[in-house]
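Reopening this one. Same input as before:
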Amino acid sequence: MIDSVQYPDVLGALTGGSRVAMGAMQFALALNPDVICAGRASEVILLAQNASDQKVEIAALLHLPDHDAKRQKGRFISRSARVAVPVQPGEVGYISLPFGILPDTATSDQYKLSVDVEVRSVSQGKPARVRGQDGGVTFNPDTISADARVHYEALQELTFSAHKPALRNALDATFTVTEARLAPPPKLKAQWTSLWTIADADERLIMLRYADLITVKVLPQLRRQKLLPPLVESTKTHFSDAGYTLHDVEATLIAKMLTLILEYASPQDSAHGFMAAGNYSITPLFQRLLRDTNQEITLPRWFNGFLRLLGQDERVADYAPRVIPRTLYLPLLYDAVEHAFALVQQVSGQSLGEKNEIEAYAAQLIEMLENKRAVNFQRVYLPLVMGGVLVNDKILMPGEQQDDQVSQLVNILDERRQEMTIDDADIVELTEQMIHRATKIYGHRGE
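Same output, byte for byte:
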């Protein structure tokens, strides 16, 4: 039975639909070029598409003509006749098998070669199909990387064959040899080139592919005890590299803002609630996608990045609390900036910018950190430190008092005054409002 979620038919887009199915794999064959001057070289292209959700190994063995049209033997040569490669679940790529033709080879348009193919599963359990016998959904070349696009576009110029000899797991093709034209031999080597993996898929497809892995393994790890310490260190490093050394309290408050975004991914389990989590909640999206796989969804930037990493190597699921602070810090910070602006605006009653202005502000800060360009007091405090003040009590660590971080910030603000300009006055005032609101709440709770 074919799953309702189908991967794109990359092979069919290149071959016009022609293919040979062997177990979980689909194949087609081409020569580049298929009209070859004697004394020159060509390469056999074995296009391979994994139609299952499990990893397989394929081996390709090239058979060249034993002799030429004049019965001369040994006129066709290959240094790498056999190649074995692993193919990831759903992956599409090709094996290139180069061969050469000696200069005195007889001309003919009736030469034939073949490639024997072996398919071996290297995963346990019964595979599920992610593409039908006739392929999957329509492929959009814009989804793949620039490097893969170069290879894809080159393959579009070739003519693929899907002819299978009787009683053999093989594909064959005919080629032409013309009169000799000597030239330096090209540097060709047998190799595997990947065109498409699950990391290139639409984010909805990746979510559904790894739904169990994400909900059972990834999301339960996103808790403050594991996240906050590495996020504090990553925050210090990023801002220090951009010329602004943070106090521990400032870094901690910013990191709490980031941690909250991550805990919002599963708000019911982290006790924040779906209303508070809003668009940063991940768990409800799975149910929506199961009801309608084509439904448009909006993902936090950090999660979109995590899906791409997961598609490249699903082992990152085991190390999410390490991977996110190191690899996805900047997209997570972007999410935190947007959310912090919303909180500060809501609490202060001030309009700090329209949606497009806030997005531009966030993108600018990310660009400054990414390129290690000097950030200043305003960029640090508006809205990140302010947002951290407002969410501080939502991300308390064991043994931490509600006002531990916020009360220390008052002294730090005094220390920072010597670096401030007249343009920072409004930011200081707004920060003090956030501090006053937070300490007032703590005082009320302590009564």
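So the earlier flakiness isn't reproducible anymore. For the record, The mean pLDDT is 93.
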